[in-house]
Amino acid sequence: xxxxxxxxxxxxxxxxxxxxxxxxxxxERKLSKxxxxxxxxxxxxxxxxxxNTNVKENKTVEIKINIRQTSFIQTETSISYEAxxxxxxxxxxxxxxxxxxxxxxH
Length: 106
Known about the structure:
Blueprint: E1 7-13, E2 16-21, H1 26-32, E3 41-50, E4 59-67, E5 70-78, H2 81-105
Parallel strand pairs: 1-3
Antiparallel strand pairs: 1-2, 3-4, 4-5
């Protein structure tokens, strides 16, 4: 189990929002790896949206990570939710490392 209290998944579908606690799912496993870069992660919120387009890259993932006194948000669109999650988590990892480096130098 991760230090983060919980990870919530919000699915937006035809103007309806479905909310799930996603412990143990693919996205939660990917997000838990961020804790190796910062031990102050409080929680995470994940929004999945299927864009109504003819383009194959129509699955959007938005992840908000709350860390003590700051938040990080990353949105990515790809051909699958897994691929979009990978892109978003990689970007969040960079943001968290950069933030931690700034905090440690002050």
